[in-house]
């Protein structure tokens, strides 16, 4: 898959050691991220380098100003490579209304990238996904399914939980949440970028299946969002005829800073 190839490329870049990689920590909807980057790209084309856009900062706090206009101003401020512009964005975030919090988060990320790019000789790579991350780790939503659509027994749940914890601890990862719902084991987890999460999940399934062969080899793995039960069921229904373990819907956005 194209997204998986991008993920592999990012891991290769990190292994090379000549890039500094930062991961967007917050969970921000992918659709909103794409809308932000489209607007930001267009705004950069018409930036006036001699204009002091901070003189318009009060518009962000004015309830009479349309949200769409505030979004444009946030993108504009984020495009200026000056520390005072970055500080203005950080200050606004503490008071930003709910509809602008994620947009402001993305603006702060872009502004920080511009500033660091101008100060560091190392290339900067900023990674943003729908589920965000923690430190240098990406957050994933994993679903493992029991065979024959059977609910997991108490002993199977205990075994799977122990194996998940063991494998993630061995790979400097973290399990944030495990939820069992009928035949589905839903896991919210974190793993460093350099780790191949697909291989780890395969190990977990293989090890558990030595004690009763109760887990399907196919699994769902995404960093876009936590899926609802109907979305999970739809995925496995479509994938039922396939035999290979599958990583699906992995979506990683990449922004690169200059040297």
Overall pLDDT, averaged? 86
Poorly predicted parts? 243-250
Structural class: alpha+beta
CATH domain topology of the largest domain: Alpha-Beta Plaits
CATH superfamily of the largest domain: Transposase IS200-like
SS elements, strand count = 8
Q: Cα-atom Rg, whole angstroms?
A: 21 Å
Task: Please outline the helices and strands.
Elements: H1 2-16, E1 19-23, H2 30-44, H3 67-78, H4 83-93, H5 98-119, E2 123-128, E3 133-134, E4 137-146, H6 154-170, E5 174-181, E6 184-192, H7 197-209, E7 215-222, H8 229-239, E8 253-257
Parallel strand pairs: 1-2
Antiparallel strand pairs: 2-8, 3-4, 4-6, 4-7, 5-6
Helix pairs in contact: 2-3, 3-5, 4-5, 6-7
Describe the protein.
The protein has 259 residues and is an alpha+beta fold. A hairpin with a 2-residue loop joins strand 3 (133-134) and strand 4 (137-146). The strands form two sheets. Strands 3, 4, 5, 6 and 7 form a five-stranded antiparallel beta sheet that branches. The protein has a three-stranded mixed beta sheet with strand order 1-2-8, with helices on both faces. 45% of the residues lie in helices and 20% in strands. Helix 2 crosses helix 3 and helix 4 (83-93) packs antiparallel against helix 5. It is built from eight helices and eight strands. It has two domains: 25-128, no CATH class; 136-252, 2-Layer Sandwich (Alpha-Beta Plaits), CATH 3.30.70.
């Amino acid at each position: 898959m194209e997204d998986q190839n991008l993920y592999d490329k990012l891991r290769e870049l990190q292994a090379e050691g000549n890039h500094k990689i930062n991961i967007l920590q917050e969970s921000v909807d992918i659709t909103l991220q794409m809308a932000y980057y489209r607007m930001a790209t267009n705004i950069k084309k018409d930036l006036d380098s001699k204009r002091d856009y901070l003189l318009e900062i009060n518009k962000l706090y004015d309830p009479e100003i349309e949200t769409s206009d505030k979004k444009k101003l946030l993108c504009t401020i984020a495009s200026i490579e000056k520390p005072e512009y970055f500080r203005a964005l950080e200050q606004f975030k503490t008071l930003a209304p709910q509809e602008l919090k994620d947009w402001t988060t993305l603006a702060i990320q872009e502004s920080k990238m511009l500033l660091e790019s101008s100060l560091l000789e190392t290339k900067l790579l900023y990674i943003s996904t729908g589920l965000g991350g923690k430190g240098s780790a990406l957050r994933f939503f994993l679903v493992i399914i029991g065979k024959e659509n059977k609910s997991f027994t108490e002993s199977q749940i205990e075994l799977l939980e122990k194996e998940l914890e063991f494998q993630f601890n061995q790979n400097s990862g973290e399990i944030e949440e495990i939820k069992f719902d009928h035949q589905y084991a839903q896991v919210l987890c974190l793993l460093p970028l350099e780790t191949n999460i697909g291989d780890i999940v395969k190990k977990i399934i293989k090890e558990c299946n030595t004690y009763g062969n109760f887990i399907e080899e196919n699994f769902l793995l995404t960093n876009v969002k936590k899926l609802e039960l109907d979305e999970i069921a739809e995925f496995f229904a479509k994938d039922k005829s396939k035999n290979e373990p599958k990583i699906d819907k992995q979506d990683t956005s990449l922004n690169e800073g200059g040297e």
